[in-house]
Every structure is written in structure tokens, then in C-alpha cells.
Amino acid sequence: MGRKWNNIKEKKAAKDQSTSRIYAKFGREIYVAAKQGEPDPESNGALKVVLERAKTYSVPKHIIDRAIEKAKGGGEENYDELRYEGFGPSGSMIIVDALTNNVNRTAAEVRATFGKNGGNMGVSGSVAYMFDTTAVFALENKSADDVLELLIESDVDARDVFEEGDTTIIYAEPDQFNAVQEALKAQGISEFNVAELTMLPQTEVELQGEDLQKFERLIELLEDLEDVQQVYHNVDL
Description:
It is found in: Cytoplasm. By secondary structure, the protein is of the alpha+beta class. It has three domains: 5-72, Integrase, N-terminal zinc-binding domain (Arc Repressor Mutant, subunit A), CATH 1.10.10.200; 80-129 and 202-233, YebC, transcriptional regulation domain (Alpha-Beta Plaits), CATH 3.30.70.980; 132-201, Alpha-Beta Plaits. It is built from eight helices and eight strands; from the N terminus they run ααααββαββαββαβαβ. The strands form two sheets. The protein has a four-stranded antiparallel beta sheet. Helix 2 runs antiparallel to helix 3 (45-56) and helix 2 (21-36) runs parallel beside helix 4. It is globular, with a radius of gyration of 18 Å. The relative contact order is 0.18.
């Protein structure tokens, strides 16, 4: 499955860092995760996952600390977690996850972005059934065979372990995120190019020409929306 994790992350990180939006998005996500459970990643699995992903995007420590302290102090901001599903050019499939304090505003913005850029919103469940929630890790300087052996010895199940260029990719069930992470860290592997829970498409499609240009523009505009945290799709870029 040609997700090309490094290229996707580097492209998005470069764009986000130029606007500093990534920090605001992570601050909000960390705050919500910390407020919904204990503000300690060792006892709050959701917070631990968010913090690990923030680390791969080089989110400054003061952004993380501020969000956690805000949650500890019983911040009064409340956010709804929303998921929108829709279609882009040539029937491409898109999932948009958002955190918002104004559901009507976010729904209107997402719908308008789809509608003005060659896409359309679908009903709940119209797209998500074609994706699998997956724990993904990407690391360097270890072969897929070595990583697989390490995980087996640690009695950790992985859905798939393979190489993309110089990078080894691990796919696992979402409830295995912490187990995979701890098994790797026990062997001295603590730096990851990617460490996150994501939505992987069961099949990918290829777009070309104008359809590809429209699709990339649609994804860019969706990611630019203030309330949008993640955008997933099934296009092989």
C-alpha cells in the first residue's frame, strides 16, 4: 500500500510549520485528550498516542506543557469530536476528523470546501467502511526482518512489517500501539518518523491530470480549516 509516509509527513509538516497551524491543532488535541482522562500519558492511552505523534512533528515542549496544564486546571473549553465523510474527484474517498466548539460552523465549512472543490459530502458510514483504523510506525536504521523478529520475541502482534526505501513501516491493530512502542523502546528504538493512529484505505486509487490537481487542492483546503485535525483518503500520491 503506497502510503509513502515520509513524503506525506514532510510535505504536510513543511506547509503547517510555515503557518504555525500545526501547533494550534496539536495544542487543542492534547488539551482534549488530557481533559477526557488523566493528564498523565502513562495512565491515559489517548494522550500518549497524541504526544508521540506530536514528537514526530517536533511540536515544542512549551506547547505540549501549556495544553496539559490547561487541562489540569479544568479549562472550560469544550470540544466535540466530529467525523465527516465525502467524495473527491473520480469517486475518491475522504475522511475528515475535527475538534470543534461550534458544530454548525465546522459542518458548514467542511461542506462548503467539498462543494466548491469538486467533491461532495456523504452520509455517515458512506466512506469509513473502506478504511481500517491502524497503528503506524515508521523508523530508520532497522530492517523489516529485524523489527519483525524483535516484535515476535516481545510477543507483540503486527499486521504487517515492510520496507519503503530506507524506512521500515509497521502496521498493527490500534490497541497494539503502546505494545509496539514499548517493545521498540525496550530495544533502544525511541525515534520514529511516524508514530500514530491513522485510517488506512483498504484499496487505493490513482488520479491523473486535472482530477489529481483538484483532489490535491481539496485536501489542502480541508487541512487548512481551523477545526480540522486529520484528513484521510484513498488516493495513491
